[in-house]
Amino acid sequence: MTSDLRPKPFSLTVTPCEKNPDVALVQVSGYLDAHTVGEFESVLIDDTKLFFRCYIVDATGLYFISSAGISTLVRLVQLARSRRGEVALLRPGEQVRSLMDLLSLNDLFHLVETREEAISLFLT
């Protein structure tokens, strides 16, 4: 049995919300694991040029998340809350939901099914 050490697909885009510039629309797809969290963190957490209060993380295309990926999402929640904001997870898949259930993390995130639902959370 051999281990596949090839990089897994990962994509990340961040755009300001048209209805509220304090809200970032984060499109993440592929694998959020130990090999890819560095890019996620450098763009969303460490980059001081990006200043958003709230984050909508579209997890529709997120196929896999490891404990390192979950840890990074928790750091994003901490960052948002330090700015009096929140994080919404848009349509997380079964693997992501199961891991969050297992770790009792569902209360940290707003789980939403539509982008409009997420945006409305942050308009008030």
Molecular structure report:
This protein is an alpha/beta fold. It has one domain (10-123): Transcription Regulator spoIIAA (2-Layer Sandwich), CATH 3.30.750.24. 34% of the residues lie in helices and 29% in strands. It contains four helices and five strands; from the N terminus they run ββαβαβαβα. The chain has helices spanning 37-44, 67-82, 94-102, 115-123; strands at 10-16, 23-32, 54-65, 87-90, 110-112. The protein has a five-stranded mixed β-sheet with strand order 1-2-3-4-5. Helix 1 (37-44) packs parallel to helix 2 (67-82). The longest helix has 16 residues, at 67-82. The model has no long low-confidence stretch (mean pLDDT 89).
Features:
5 strands; Transcription Regulator spoIIAA; 124 residues; 4 helices; 34% helix; alpha/beta
